[in-house]
């Protein structure tokens, strides 16, 4: 099968927002007296905001109403968005910028497949809102990763079948989502060590090594 498009996860693949998620959730966890550390933060990768809160509340002793949970998640998001305001195009590595530009030159369709409802805000901050041919994010799905919906929508927006698009992910939940949707997947970071990942890669531009076996096809974008 030849690939016509690539769907990139955003947080942890195109740019790094983990530290801001961590800082915002840590503030919330401290406020409600719940233990929170980097290992718990790692479990939040790829999952939605409300599901992230549920993971944090595993350590919570009391009861919390849905309304209280909603308020806490909104508060976290306000802290997080304030932190995101300091992001700029400098938060995109040269390697990522050059690889995306080269994929565009080769007429490969490129899309974002992110669970985040802040994806467009982040892309605008880092100067990449215009480069992607399609954006599928937390606003157009009802189930986040490991459900495949966000990638299925991205493929639909690109006009490709799942088997024609490569998914690039850093989270295990994202690899599970890709597999559930019938997408071949490349894994960076934690996902490179995941046994279910089709193509473990160690740096972003390794995407081109997958292209070396003639796996790419112009998509007409
Ligand atoms: C994903 C992150 O991209 O977005 C998760 O990996 C996060 O950690 C999820 O929970 C939802 O983000 P947001 O921006 O909608 O709160
Ligand atoms: Mg990610």
Helix coverage percent:
40-55%
Bound molecules: 6-O-phosphono-beta-D-glucopyranose, magnesium ion
Low-confidence stretches: none
Instruction: Please state roughly what percent of the residues sit in beta strands, choosing from under 5%, 5-15%, 15-25%, 25-35%, 35-45% or over 45%.
Output: 5-15%
* Biggest sheet strand line-up: 3-2-1-4-5-6
Shape: globular
* H/E topology pattern: EHHHHHEHEHEHEEH
Number of helices: 9
Please give the alpha-carbon distance between the first and last residues. Answer: 19 Å
The largest pleated sheet is described as:
6 strands, parallel
Number of strands: 6
How large is the radius of gyration?
17 Å
Average pLDDT reading: 93
Main structural class: alpha/beta
Fold topology:
Layout: E1 5-8, H1 18-31, H2 38-43, H3 49-56, H4 66-84, H5 94-105, E2 109-113, H6 119-125, E3 134-136, H7 149-158, E4 165-169, H8 172-181, E5 185-187, E6 199-200, H9 207-211
Parallel strand pairs: 1-2, 1-4, 2-3, 4-5, 5-6
Helix pairs in contact: 1-4
The structure holds 6-O-phosphono-beta-D-glucopyranose and magnesium ion.
